[in-house]
Specification:
The protein is α+β, with helices and mostly antiparallel strands and 156 residues long. The protein folds into two domains: 2-73, no CATH class; 77-145, no CATH class. The chain has three helices and eight strands, in the order E-E-E-E-E-E-E-E-H-H-H. The strands form two sheets. The chain has a five-stranded antiparallel beta sheet, with no helix packed on it. Helix 2 (104-123) packs antiparallel against helix 3 (126-145). The N and C termini lie far apart (69 Å). 4% of the residues are buried. Mean pLDDT is 77; it is low at 147-156.
Length: 156
């Protein structure tokens, strides 16, 4: 169950974009039980209109007493969205690596080579860019046909 204690005139609560019905009793707005899963983040949006002094969001599980949602348990929506986007890109890179059989080290070497090429494009003339492109093409072709990009030599 969620509740909002406030001096505001109206309160709305959304949990993961689902509007939760609140019942008002004095300065407290209380919901019916809300299904949450331990360790699973949810997006909470509380809107209070007519607010003059305070608004406190409380959470209650079962027969336990209601507790104020601590600030350290909250994260601004823009940061949560940025994290989610980065996580999706990371998962896509992992799936790509597994699909084409690249190790993390090989992917890193390729990304560094691409970065160096992009840097070179900004700082060299056309003839140098053509030469760099040919070198990169040759190294990619060798990587496709030959041994791994990185080899270790043992012994002396």
């Amino acid at each position: 169950m969620m509740s909002v204690d406030t001096d505001g005139s109206a309160v709305t609560l959304q949990v993961d974009a689902n509007t939760v019905t609140l019942q008002r009793q004095g300065t407290s707005w209380t919901s019916a039980p809300v299904q949450l899963t331990a360790g699973q983040p949810v997006r909470l949006r509380v809107t209070v209109t007519g607010l003059t002094a305070r608004a406190t969001l409380r959470w209650q599980a079962g027969s336990l007493p209601a507790v104020t949602l601590p600030g350290q348990a909250c994260c601004p929506a823009d940061l949560a969205d940025a994290f989610a986007a980065a996580y999706r890109r990371l998962r896509a890179a992992q799936e790509l690596m597994a699909g084409i059989g690249l190790s993390a080290r090989e992917l890193l070497v390729r990304s560094v080579a691409r970065h160096r090429f992009q840097h070179a494009v900004r700082h060299t003339d056309v003839e140098d860019m053509v030469a760099i492109g040919k070198l990169l093409d040759a190294s990619h072709e060798k990587a496709r046909r030959g041994p791994p990009l990185l080899e270790a030599r043992l012994g002396g």
